[in-house]
Amino acid sequence: MRFPSAMRFPSEGRLSIRESLRIFSLLTASLPPARPASPGPATRAQAVRAGSSFERLFPPSLIPGTASMSGPPSCGNTLRCFASLFLLPGAGLDGAVDGSPAAQLLANPNLLLYAWRLHLDAPVREALGLAPRAAASREAYSRFSQGVARSSAGRGERLLRGELMGTDGEHALPRVLFCSVAWIKDHQFCVVKHSNERFQVVQGYLKQDADDGGTGGRRGNPAFSAGRESAGFGLAGWQEVNSRRIQGRQYGAREGIGKRRMEHFLDGLQGFARNDVFDASGYEDVFGVHHAGGQRYWPSVSHRELLDEHIVGSGERGVADALERQLKVGVE
Fold this sequence. Notes:
Blueprint: H1 12-30, H2 44-48, H3 75-83, H4 93-98, H5 101-107, H6 109-127, H7 135-165, E1 175-182, E2 186-193, E3 198-202, H8 235-239, E4 257-258, H9 259-274, H10 280-287, E5 300-305, H11 308-311, H12 318-331
Antiparallel strand pairs: 1-2, 1-5, 2-3, 3-4
Helix pairs in contact: 1-12, 6-7, 7-9, 9-10
């Protein structure tokens, strides 16, 4: 049989990603709601997982050589559980999720710029016998370095938007992109591009106190707003409500979101990259957690895609396959 020259077939790695995502959908569908909407009877699959969470499905026995991934909710914990459906730790997981140290520094110049301003500039000048930097000079450096950080973050947001909003051939889908944003704090999340019209945001979030690291912007800053305490949430908490009534959760639907809503999500990231001061409400609209706001910050936005070379030759699907077997046994 002869095929048209334009016809392309999915690679071995892409087929493995599709299978991992199929199992991921089964696992999340089996979980009970984080807060049940009604006291009605659970399905058999929900009964198997009663009191569980996505992250607690990953015991150390399934992931050799690592500690349990069932600790307190956090973005990193959720993403590593999710990534282990495609890769085993020690077989490229950390590199796929975080990138190399050099790649992290390149994608996050804000870290070096902010660290120099806060911790290094004064000691270096003192060691060189130079006078302390004048207030006007410190302010000029702050403005310059913040502009560099915003420019880099804006470029990162545009690159992510291009990857997600561009048109991909069927053979190249789905795509899995591990993303991060950073300012005074940092946050990791994942976007799955199932098709050119359907997307899925995967994340958890660490417990937050009302004073969550942003209090340094309070002094003399009338725009400062305190953070709000949050108990944190795992993936089930993020996915539990597909409703515009809950701020920041309109992007967490388990079945995914459409292209227009994904564009709104990216618009929120664009604001994060461009703003002079941290917009706590805008950030909450996107990620569902309210940090302290109104303070100057040095943003970054970056992403790394799960590529065929991460899968083929080093990746294994043993974790995903084992969890699917356990799920089938539990509901028989």
